Amino acid sequence: MNFFASLLLALTVRFLFSPFWRYRYSYADTGNTKTTDKGAWAFPYGITYPGKPSGRFSDGHISTDFFRIKLPVTHSKKDDVDKTRLQYGMSFAYGGTGVFDTKATYPNMTGQITLFEQLLGNVYSPSDLSSSVALVSVAGNDYLNFLSTRHSLDAILSLITQVVNQIEVNLRRIHSLGIKKIAVPSLQPLGYIPYFAKGFPFIKDAVNFLVGHHNDLLHEVVAKLNNETNHSAFTIIDYNNAFLTVINNKGEIPDILLFETPFIECFQIDVNEFKNSTLCDDPRSAFFWDGLHPTQEGWKSVYTVLRKNITAALT
């Protein structure tokens, strides 16, 4: 099963925030992975939107569909679309990839930035970049792969430090290319995704402790970079708090559905035979689509909570 962590580059709507770029993984991958991949390109993925598999790791819209910008072209389709569509940016998000190499065969975050650099000068100009926003998000693949086997606490904490240090390197690189505004989502509470939540309670708590450590280090990096640049070039989008707000909602938050069983996924995948997997009656009733990814309704609720934070990040 693909998760995500990558970099997404996309140009936004003309006069609002102008170009918007994004680097990420399956939380933002709108079709970069190959059509032969199971999951995002197989039924019932896409059952809510667009009614068939479209490369999104959900039943419908995913995180970046809720940014209220014109959807950027996926990198894999850049040569197959009208060139005017490139003005809205490009997504380099490949499901399953990470900051470092994972089991996925697609480029990691460093490789995705290189793909972007190769377009500078002939597709995107310096003026495009100066009025752009980059969304740079890591959401778990490096950790998911690592935690699939036993490791000491010291080894896990060391990996978190390595991941965040490399994120800092990548943020500096993107900024040096001329992008003036960079948004960095915090890591969501991984302990609550069905992949972990269905295990022993101490596993959920331990994973969320590690998420907290990642986010603490990420905040330190962003504060340091903003201090060095003498302006708020970098901002954090608080995925962690938004997920927790939706998951813990008891009906007191307007415009957000009450998810009765938020830790139970709608599409329960049979790892031995995909076609034998089971699907819930109504994806809208579930927060999680599969063991790792929110449903369209789940993402909608998260972005309802994040609305003010997103506006501040992108303007």
From TrEMBL:
Signal peptide stretch: 1-28
Coiled-coil spans in chain: none
One matching Pfam family: Lipase_GDSL
Domain of life: Eukaryota
Keyword Kinase assigned: no
Keyword terms of this UniProt record: Hydrolase, Lipid degradation, Lipid metabolism, Signal
Keyword Signal: yes
One Gene Ontology term of the molecular function aspect: hydrolase activity, acting on ester bonds
One GO BP annotation of this record: lipid catabolic process
InterPro entries: GDSL, SGNH_hydro_sf
Family per similarity comment: Belongs to the 'GDSL' lipolytic enzyme family.
PANTHER family membership: BNAA09G15670D PROTEIN (PTHR46020:SF25), OSJNBB0059K02.9 PROTEIN (PTHR46020)
Annotated protein name in UniProt: BnaA09g15670D protein
Organism: Brassica napus (Rape)
